[in-house]
Design goal:
This protein is α+β, with helices and mostly antiparallel strands and 186 residues long. 25% of the residues lie in helices and 31% in strands. A five-stranded mixed beta sheet has the order 1-2-3-6-9.
């Protein structure tokens, strides 16, 4: 029997949101671990300042001369369980201007905005057997370097649908950062 998130009693909404948030961190941990890095959840102070996690990587990521061998990335992690709004191959994600302006501030540490998408069917979020552990759906990412500050109450982030946060994509992001490239907002 399919059980949609909307079928869960209203009183359990907070619990459902916590599970969804924890699964999004699990996804980020799994991908960063498989890519050779580590994922560290941050404390409330950093979270209140727009950073949920730090990714750390050590090693040689590029053959280019003078490339970095230690990479740190700040991550803001959001999750969504309803249908994604997609136009022009970009996912639209609404958020407050106050949040958005926190995410785009200038920093010495590269920043990723990650959107984890889960099914409306809660029973499909995670399944396991003795042979496999399956966390369904995926996460999408965007850099916000070069994004302009906005005013008003609400705004929308546009995340390229091609930017699936996979092991290979994350390795490519780390390589680019090691070579001095910025994670530009497209």
């Amino acid at each position: 029997m399919k059980m949609k998130a909307t079928d869960i009693i209203h009183e359990n909404k907070t619990e459902l949101n916590i599970i969804q948030e924890n699964l999004s961190f699990s996804y980020l941990h799994a991908v960063s671990s498989r890519a050779g890095g580590s994922c560290i959840e941050v404390g409330r102070n950093s979270d209140n300042n727009g950073v949920d996690a730090h990714l750390k990587f050590f090693g040689k990521f590029s053959d280019k001369k003078n490339s970095l061998t230690q990479i740190d990335i700040n991550v803001q992690l959001k999750s969504k369980r309803h249908k994604l709004i997609i136009a022009d191959n970009k996912i639209s994600f609404p958020l407050s201007v106050e949040q958005y302006n926190k995410y785009i501030r200038k920093s010495t540490t590269p920043f990723l905005f990650v959107l984890f998408h889960v099914s409306d069917d809660v029973q499909q979020w995670l399944t396991l057997s003795t042979d496999e552990l399956i966390l369904r759906k995926c996460a999408y990412w965007t850099g916000l370097y070069g994004a302009s500050a906005r005013s008003g109450q609400k705004t929308t982030l546009h995340i390229p649908k091609k930017n699936i946060l996979s092991v290979e994509q994350l390795k490519n992001i780390v390589r680019k950062i090691s070579e001095g490239e910025k994670l530009n907002y497209e």
